[in-house]
User: What shape does this take?
Amino acid sequence: MGDIFLKLKNELGEKLKRDEILAPYTTFKIGGPARYFYEANSEQDIINAVKIVKKLNITYYILGGGSNILISDSGFNGLIIKIGNNWIAIKDNKIKCGAGASLVKAARLSIANNLSGLEWSIGIQGATIGGAVKVNAEAFNSPMSNIVEIVSALNIKKNKFEIFDNKDCKFNYRQSIFKDNNNYIIWETELKLTKASSNKIKKLIKESINHRNKKYPKFPSAGSIFKNIPYEFFKKNSKELADKLLNAGIARLGNIGAGLIIEKARLKGKAIGGAKISLEHGNFIVNTGNATAENVIMLISIIKQKVRANYGIQLEEEIELVGF
Ligand SMILES: Cc1cc2nc3c(=O)[nH]c(=O)nc-3n(C[C@H](O)[C@H](O)[C@H](O)COP(=O)(O)OP(=O)(O)OC[C@H]3O[C@@H](n4cnc5c(N)ncnc54)[C@H](O)[C@@H]3O)c2cc1C
Assistant: This one.
């Protein structure tokens, strides 16, 4: 084991760490140690990291802001590569940034320049641009796919940077080419925003902040645990149930909201250890202080079972499980 650490260190230098506790790198504040941990700040860093993990046949994981993941209590038995290129530059109506840049910082800079398109993300602390592009993050019907113009990503197989335009990214609900196939590490992104009056922008920010203050819990979390289910998709499979849910107020904005389904199943407030299904939002599990990943997994399992039994719906995780 020590031997692998030395081989990695030979290639990656003093920045390489061992047994780094991962909880502080996640918004859930949950997760054990990474056997090896490395922050890639430059193109050369990321190329070197990919080269050496392939050569030594080591498992690795790309970490953004850790706001959409649950890391196991036993941590990750491989190399965590934290994306550290976090620069942001603005020119005319475009924002260029490193994949490790904070989504909220990019939003604030665009707002300060009267550019519209990222207001919805105010309040998503922790998320990076790279993570947001990969999962096509969105709120209020305003997905990343509306503003992404160009992405530069490292093709892991070829160890070569490639350029993607918006179409190449194959965006869909919570989907992109970067999610469909794990062959790419997003490295830089160019976003195209729209000039707007500061009044219009202020109104959109206010809507976002008010919604988040009202609906989002204050405790650490990973955002929504489950994906919402497109109503049309659901109707095709079970029109009778779809109508029942529509009448029960569970379907809205073209989606069956997972939070509402969980609320109707009377699961809000249920707790195991330090993990609790939020009282504010049924699709959030919060860490009230000393939650373990195991506590969260048990709650996820209870939710899935009860929702399946009550409504015949198979919920699917939106968060990613790491190290399980
Ligand atoms: C309080 C709260 C509110 C939230 N609200 C919303 C919301 O309104 N809408 C929404 O869509 N999401 C929301 N989220 C979820 C989350 O913030 C987003 O999904 C975000 O885009 C994840 O970005 P990240 O940098 O934290 O990614 P991580 O959680 O670090 O990683 C997510 C995935 O992206 C991969 N990844 C990260 N960076 C890269 C990269 N550079 N190249 C390739 N792969 C990469 C990881 O390997 C992983 O597969 C919320 C989360 C929280 C905690």
In short: Residues 27, 62-69, 83, 99, 124, 126-128, 130-132, 134-135, 137-139, 178, 185-186, 216, 221-223, 320 surround flavin-adenine dinucleotide (CB under 6 Å). The first helix runs from residue 2 to 12. The chain has ten helices and 21 strands. The chain has three domains: 2-83, 88-201, 217-322.
